[in-house]
């Protein structure tokens, strides 16, 4: 059973917390990129490492047990700031900001840099799968109730370059507890990766 | 065309570079975790952020253009330190250390923490797909020549908890330029996610 914590946070509380913690994640994202690409000498690396260890210790002086979780407000708003794809407090997330069209199509424009590399200069195929799993999952849940991936098939049409990218997904059909969704990732030249998924309504959300 | 840089690095050079840069990535991985989980006050966060920005600037004072790439030594060794799954210099990679059995089965034991969360306390379904894509891809390339994912289907049997996990994959059949591979992720209770993939030998590696 998954625990979605309900917390009595107002819109102002959420904004206040976001203003405190989001800029830290933005900075750590830049540090992640620099860590992969730096060519500074051993002495500088060791000095930087010591500073980072000190920063980590200060942050850990007061921290939650375990992962961030998913918090819900009484008004039904969902806060997934630790999420691996959209988490604004998670430096490993690009993070995607997912938009919703009138017809419930979901889409995001985003940028993938050095941290997402697989083949040289290109997006790791699994990173494309990660992003498509998330965007398809959001498209599968137009009522803001979570649906979980039953299965997903990802087809790679060509190597996807690092840089600015677009992802989108929409429901193709619903059959009982199963929601079928398809989507893709594209660069300026067109589609690079396509996906189809079957998403399942969890038992505790079925009528 | 993908550029695999050939660099004339000896085993000693590689070890020296690894000893300089790997500990930095280990520290930044811990910082990523602390960034997601910290509850320290706004003042402390701002001070830590300033220290991190300074650290990033020092690392960026000398850095490569673009992503890390994949370097090959004349002896055929491949260095993928920026890779999103196995990159030892990439703080967003767990990183997986992939072992090879006598029968060419590939496997890895690894730990996923707060940075890989999707549903509360559980691995993001897309992260499982990311890891399986990589492990299946390694299994598809027993001769150390890269093969690229044509398609992969991932089936989610149950929610996969954050914590210690195992992944493995092996070739089921080869048909011309197509290599068929299957694999799974498991926790202490058994398999959580299965995958099947078709991997393609790139044109420039075909005989």
TrEMBL record, chains A, B:
<keyword id="KW-1003">Cell membrane</keyword>
<keyword id="KW-0276">Fatty acid metabolism</keyword>
<dbReference type="InterPro" id="IPR006683">
    <property type="entry name" value="Thioestr_dom"/>
</dbReference>
<dbReference type="Pfam" id="PF03061">
    <property type="entry name" value="4HBT"/>
</dbReference>
<dbReference type="GO" id="GO:0006631">
    <property type="term" value="P:fatty acid metabolic process"/>
</dbReference>
<dbReference type="GO" id="GO:0016020">
    <property type="term" value="C:membrane"/>
</dbReference>
<dbReference type="GO" id="GO:0016787">
    <property type="term" value="F:hydrolase activity"/>
</dbReference>
<dbReference type="GO" id="GO:0005737">
    <property type="term" value="C:cytoplasm"/>
</dbReference>
<keyword id="KW-0809">Transit peptide</keyword>
<keyword id="KW-0443">Lipid metabolism</keyword>
<protein>
    <recommendedName>
        <fullName>Acyl-coenzyme A thioesterase THEM4</fullName>
        <ecNumber>3.1.2.2</ecNumber>
    </recommendedName>
</protein>
<dbReference type="InterPro" id="IPR029069">
    <property type="entry name" value="HotDog_dom_sf"/>
</dbReference>
<keyword id="KW-0963">Cytoplasm</keyword>
<dbReference type="InterPro" id="IPR052365">
    <property type="entry name" value="THEM4/THEM5_acyl-CoA_thioest"/>
</dbReference>
<keyword id="KW-0472">Membrane</keyword>
<keyword id="KW-0378">Hydrolase</keyword>
<feature type="domain" description="Thioesterase">
    <location>
        <begin position="121"/>
        <end position="192"/>
    </location>
</feature>
<comment type="similarity">
    <text>Belongs to the THEM4/THEM5 thioesterase family.</text>
</comment>
<keyword id="KW-0966">Cell projection</keyword>
<keyword id="KW-0053">Apoptosis</keyword>
């Amino acid at each position: 059973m998954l625990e979605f914590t309900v917390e009595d946070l107002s819109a102002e509380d959420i904004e206040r917390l976001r203003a405190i913690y989001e800029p830290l994640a933005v900075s750590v994202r830049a540090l992640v990129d620099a860590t992969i690409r730096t060519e500074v000498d051993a002495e500088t690396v060791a000095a930087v490492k010591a500073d980072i260890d000190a920063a980590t210790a200060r942050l850990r002086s007061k921290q939650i047990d375990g992962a961030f979780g998913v918090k819900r407000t009484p008004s039904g708003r969902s806060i997934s700031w630790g999420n691996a794809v959209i988490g604004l407090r998670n430096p490993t997330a690009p993070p995607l900001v997912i938009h919703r069209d009138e017809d419930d199509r979901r889409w995001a424009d985003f940028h993938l840099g050095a941290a997402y590399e697989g083949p040289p200069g290109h997006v790791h195929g699994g990173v494309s799968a990660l992003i498509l799993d998330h965007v398809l999952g959001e498209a599968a849940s137009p009522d803001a109730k979570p649906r979980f991936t039953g299965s997903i098939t990802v087809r790679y049409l060509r190597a996807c370059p690092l840089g600015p990218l677009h992802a989108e997904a929409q429901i193709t059909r619903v059959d009982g507890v199963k929601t079928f969704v398809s989507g893709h990732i594209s660069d300026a030249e067109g589609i690079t990766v396509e996906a189809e998924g079957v998403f399942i309504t969890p038992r505790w959300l079925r009528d």
